[in-house]
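Sequence in, structure out. Go.
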Amino acid sequence: MKLYCITDSVAVAERSGADMIQVRATQLSGRALLDLVRAILRVAGNARVLVNTRLDVALAAGAHGVHLPADSIAPDRLRGAAPWAAAASQAARMATFSPPAGQAACEAAAARGAAPQWSSGLAVRQEDLLIGVSCHTADELQRAEREEADFAVFGPVFPTRSHPGAEPLGLERFASAVRGLRMPVYALGGITRENAESCISAGAAGIAGISFFETTY
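Output:
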């Protein structure tokens, strides 16, 4: 079973056993987030590490990719036009000293369609950059696939403490939404050891979660 751990904790990331780890930490400054991502990379083992929304921080830290909300810039546009060379170094500096400017520099270059050559000083090659997307509807899943996201996280499947007002999809709606997609989709929301296998049976490529890793591992 593939595991996608969403955490801000180095300790949880280290013991998660996950295939991918998303560093969320939206409340941190660029400098603090950069330090956290680097710390998690040091303990992640073979897991791929992604940064929530902050391409500038991901580039600066040498992380494996980014995780985007459904209404963010299109993954294919971001991957194909990201400022991989000199602008990547600028983004790394901006991530530390001017967080909003660093992300703005990356997104502005993507919008322009500029695609310079990859800088060999960065840890992840352009073609290897992972981009995941959070989705909450079947339409968002289909758009993420069209726009060449590497994977999506879809939910909440079950009632969840982190989003108590969100209507759970349930397994039938989850299965219907992912049927026919080539893109891997991870089930999110209220996932436990007891119901994880039912998500896989419904078509999930794996399990994503926050409390799942805090309480299960």
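Check: The first helix runs from residue 10 to 15. The chain has one domain: 2-130+190-216.
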